[in-house]
Amino acid sequence: MLVARPNGNRSADRIIRRPRLREISPRVLRFDTRRQPLRLFATPLLLLYSFMLLISVGGTLLMFPISSADSQFTPAIDAFFTSTSAVTVTGLTVVNTSDHWSSFGHGVIFTLMLIGGLGFMSFATFMLIIIGQRITLPERMMIRDTLGGDRLGGVVSILKRIVLVVVAIYAAGFLLIYWQMSDLFSTGEALWQSAFLSVSSFNNAGFVILPDSASLEQISRQFRILIFMGVLIALGGIGWVVIVDVYRKKRFSRLSLDTKMIVVPSLFLWLTGALVFFLSEYSNQSTIGMLPLHEKAYYGIFESISGRTAGFSTIAFHSINDLTKLFFTFLMFIGGGAGSVAGGIKVVLSP
pLDDT tens digits for the chain (351 residues)? Predict the structure, then answer.
């Protein structure tokens, strides 16, 4: 610190240096050297790592003879492709799901699409909630990203509601499908088929294990089952957050803007797809041309809902007309709602 002290003559002022205590005092920096415990969601890349691990475990299990119907090893490319398709609820297959895989293999695929549909991060976090572990801010951000939301507030409570609602939908779908399946299969087979179709439908996965059937041809005349599956596909295609919002607020006028911006375009796309399918395939004898009018309408609605996001088919889909192929390609490109299990560019939320 510089101080000018007068000495009678302004030009003869002396400069006296008075160091301040604060300037000469040493500054001590303390660092916490304790190692922080590793958290489950320490990095945003863990979402990718987790799905890669899940795919790897599923693919490895599907390679083993226990997973194939003929008790032979499945080629790695087929096993890992199926595992990836199940985890990402894509529904693409390179082998006949019903004939190639054993009951154990079907169970592996069921588990993969169950966890993949709900989201590995959401599934793991819900397990942490059950055992009472505290959920930190990074974990909440991971849950938000997994669910497709943009807000952190109340994300854990939203996750709890979502899991409960999803489990209730699985159970309701299972019971309704079993109500009709019980007349077609033995009790054990009907129970397993109903559970598999319920999860596959709501997750928009498109996997089917009906015997001697590439997709839903075996139950194509079971219209009640198709209605139940169509509702499950539609619910899964609009997203869990939307379902919870509708469940809580009940009335359309009270729904959030985000929910309205998903529900309204989805209804429009489903109805438009059904109309295009109905008109385009009306006279096609290889698809619905020989069916009565009301059955043509049934197939049109179901194929529109399923073709947009799930991939189930009740007809010989390779025989559809070019116009139908073109429009359904457009529907698949759009896909489902933001934050849903469906693919596509998404019916996005408001900014």
Answer: 555 555 555 555 565 555 555 555 666 666 555 555 555 555 557 777 888 999 999 999 999 999 999 999 999 999 999 999 999 999 999 999 999 999 999 999 999 999 988 775 566 556 656 555 566 666 666 666 655 555 555 666 767 777 888 899 999 999 999 999 999 999 999 999 999 999 999 999 999 999 987 789 899 999 999 999 999 999 999 987 788 888 888 888 899 888 999 999 999 999 999 999 999 999 999 999 999 999 999 999 999 999 999 999 999 899 999 999 999 999 999 999 887 888 888 886 544
What are the percentages of helix, strand and coil residues in the chain, rounded to 5?
A: 60, 5, 35
Give the CA dihedral 232, 234, 240, 243, nearest 10 degrees: -90
Q: How many residues belong to the chain?
A: 351
Three-class secondary structure of residue 4 per DSSP: strand
Write 210-218 long-range contacts (CB < 8 A, 24+): 210/98, 211/98, 211/99, 212/98, 212/99, 213/98, 214/96, 215/312, 215/313, 215/314, 215/317, 216/312, 216/313, 216/314, 217/313, 217/314, 217/315, 217/316
| Gap between the Cα atoms of 33 and 56, Å rounded | 37
Nearest alpha-carbon partner for 126 in 109, 113, 143: 143
Indicate yes or no: pTM above 0.90.
Answer: no
